[in-house]
Amino acid sequence: MHYRKQPVRILKLYKSGIIKQLAYDSDKGLPVECYKIPKCFEQYERLTQFFNQIGATKELLLSKYCPSYLGFDDMSDIDYNQYFFEIKKGKPLKKLLTDLSKNLMPQIPLFKYWAKELLYAFRDITYKSTYRLQKNLSLKNVYVSDIGIKVYLKKIKFGEQRDNNLNYHMHVESQMLKMYAKLLIEMLTNRDESQTQETP
User: Fold this and answer.
1) Contact at 8 Å (CB) between 37 and 47?
2) 97 and 82 inside one domain
3) Of 46, 90, 151, 167, which one has the greatest count of Cβ atoms within 10 A?
């Protein structure tokens, strides 16, 4: 993408020195997230995690359920490398259910539609990405837009790449299926009972 030069809004300043700000695609005029990482950056683990995030997002580029990685710019700023990500707007489903103070019933068509879309989203993460999830996915990661017909996952933290072992892949499939089932239960009850432990 081509970064449009104009005043931007800082979204977050991290203690590590990384800056997240609002930027604009000069070709389409669309807002994007820009992560600015100092070119002299000594926090190796934090940098490794960030590049794992980019690697996983690249693999999920063709998935409509995850924000896309849009490229980088290491030339225009002498102090920072800049990395750009798509912004998917919408409302957190968790907050939506809480605000409405009601739970979804399985016979409601919207619940069935969301359940189907989330199954496809889990399929993409399981089979298109080779990176581990650092934390279990829950309803807090689910966002909806366009009167509920668009569903996507946000704020997913990826870790290192998975093992190539066949048995390990079967284990990952099993863990993802359990995670999906827990998410459906959370949609029905509006209670988060997901485990806090990291997933492989």
Assistant:
1) yes
2) no
3) 151
